[in-house]
Amino acid sequence: MSSNLWSLRLSRNTLTSLTRSSGQAVVEFTLVFLLFLIIAWVPADFGLAFYTGQLAQNASREGARIAAADPTLANGTLLVQEKFLAKRQEGFRPRFFQAPQST
């Protein structure tokens, strides 16, 4: 009978220590995971910023190259602007410039 009591007490202590150590493991995992997440996030964020800067620089370079290579491009743009200004002097206003009318 005393050996049965001893095994019950031993199993209860074992369960208590397992519960405490699993709680400790959860806390340790949370702290380490947050640290790992920050360490992994910072280079990814800098990489995204670098990529965005390169993308903007390449887009501006391509735009300048196309504008320099095509002499009719600037004339076409000026023609569109002149037509727009002529229509505007006649009283034309694009829809996105008009204030909403109340009915």
Structure description:
With 103 residues, the chain is mostly helical. It has one domain. It is built from two helices and no strands. The chain starts with a helix and ends in a 14-residue tail after the last helix.
Sketch the major β-sheet: none
So what's the overall shape? elongated
Find the count of extended strands (DSSP E, 2+ residues): 0
Task: Kindly give the count of domains.
Answer: 1
Q: What's the N-to-C terminus distance?
A: 94 Å
* Count of separate DSSP helical elements: 2
Q: For the CA atoms, what is the radius of gyration?
A: 36 Å
Order of helices and strands: HH
Structural class estimated from helices and strands = mainly alpha
Binned strand content: under 5%
Q: Mean pLDDT, as a whole number?
A: 78
Helix content bin = over 70%
Uncertain segments are none
Quick take:
It is built from two helices and no strands. By secondary structure, the protein is mainly α. It starts with a helix and ends in a 14-residue tail after the last helix.
List keywords for this structure.
single chain; 103 residues; mainly alpha
List the helices and strands and how they pair.
Layout: H1 2-69, H2 71-89
